[in-house]
Design a protein that fits this description.
Elements: H1 2-18, H2 27-30, E1 42-47, H3 51-54, E2 62-68, H4 72-82, E3 87-89, H5 92-97, E4 103-106, H6 113-122, E5 126-129, H7 137-150, E6 154-156, H8 173-182, E7 190-193, H9 222-226, H10 252-269, E8 278-282, E9 296-300, E10 306-310, E11 321-322, E12 327-329, E13 333-334, H11 339-343, H12 356-362, H13 372-389, E14 393-396, E15 401-402, H14 406-410
Parallel strand pairs: 1-2, 1-4, 2-3, 4-5, 5-6, 7-10
Antiparallel strand pairs: 7-11, 8-9, 8-14, 9-10, 11-12, 12-13, 14-15
Length: 422
Amino acid sequence: MSENKTSRRNFLKKTLIGAAAFTIVPRHVLGGSGFLAPSDHLTKGIIGVGAMGRGHFKYAGTKTVAICDVDTRHLALAQKALGGGVTEHHDFRELIQNPEVDIVHIATPPHWHGIMAVEAARSGKDIWCEKPMTRTIGEGKKVKEAVAQHGNIFRLNTWFRFDADFYGMNVPVKKIKKLVDTGMLGWPLKVTISKHTGFDWKFYWVGRENLPVEQAPQELDYEMWLGPAPYKPYSTHRVHTTFRGYWDYDGGGLGDMGQHYLDPVQYFLGKDEESPVTIEVDAPQQHSDAVGTWRKITYTYADGCQIVLDGAGTEKGLAYIEGPKGKLYKGFVSDIPDMERKLAQYPDPAPQMTDFVEACRTRQKFALNEQNGYYSATLVNLGLAALRLNRTLKFDSDKQAFVDDEAANRLIDQPMRGPWII
C-alpha cells in the first residue's frame, strides 16, 4: 500500500505540472480501477453522518461518494441531503478500504478518532478529522506516527489559527500573533480564556449520574457505537449529541471547545512543538463516569507563559493577554498607546497552507495538521487529566509524560475494549 501510494503520488505531481487543465486527478483514477477521465474534485467518505458529519458535505473541491454510520436513521438523512447515489457502509473499515475514497472525514465521537485516523493513514487515505484530534495523549501520538510513516495529508477541523474572526477578539488570529511577535506586550504572557474575554465553556455539556437503563433503539448499533469504550448499559443521554458529558467518549465543554480556543493560543505563543510543564486545577471532585464543571485550569510553560481557563467567570474586566509591557482586551482593545499605528509598521506572520484540497493536490502540509494539532489536543487532554485526578500535575514536555505520577500516566494510554486496538 505504501509503495503504491508513493508511485501514484509521483505520477500525480508530474501530471499536474504538465497539464494545467487537470485541477485534481483522484487517486483511484491512477490506481487502474477502470476510471479514465480526470476530475476536478477529490472524493471523500464521511464516517459519522449525524448533525456534525452532515456539515462536512459542504466543503468545496470535494465530492462525497461514501458515508458510514452505525445509526440507520443518520444514513437515511444523509442520503436525502446528498440526493442519494452514495455508497453506504455500516463498518468504518469498509469505507476506509473503498477504492473510490481519496479522503476520509472522521466526524464521530472522540473515542473513535484515534483508531479511525490510524486505519485511514495505513490505507493511504488523506484525513480530515473533527476536534479534539484524539481523546487521549497516547492516541494522539499514534496518529502522529502513522501519518508520518505513510505520508498522508491530515487536517484537524478547527480553523481559527488561519481563518475567521476569533470569538470575542473580533479579529483574525494572525493579527493577535502579529502583536505578540512585535514584543509590544513583553514576555512571558498570560492568556485568560473566559466568558468575560469572549469564550463560552459550554457547561451544559455535563453528564448525568445514575442514568436509567434503557433499550437501545432499533436503528442504532449500540455495541458498534461504543466500540473501544468500556461497556455501559444504553441510556439516551449517553449517545449522540450528549455523549460529550461522559469521560468514556469526550470531556464536556473542555473536550468540545478546548481545541477551538487553545490551538490559536498555542500558535500565537509559538508553542507548536512544546507542552506546558505544570497543570493546576481548581474544581469539584469529578464523578467517575459523568463529566462535571470546573472553576479554573492553569497551564504554565517552562518560560513562564501561562494559559488560564476561567470556568467560574467571577472576575470581570480581565485582559485576554497580559504581559509585563501591556495588555490586550476583548475586541482587540489595548492599553498600549497608539497600538494599531505601531502594529502596522511590522510585517504580517508567515503565510500558511490553508486550502486542504490544494494541500492534498500538492502534498504540502496543511496549516493545522497532525503535528501542531497533536500539541493543542494534548493541551485539552492535560487539562482533562488534571480535572479527573483533581490535583496539580507535572509534565515533561520532551518525553511527553507526567513526572513521577503513575496514575496520571495511566491516562495517557487508556485500555480499549477488545477487539479494538490502535
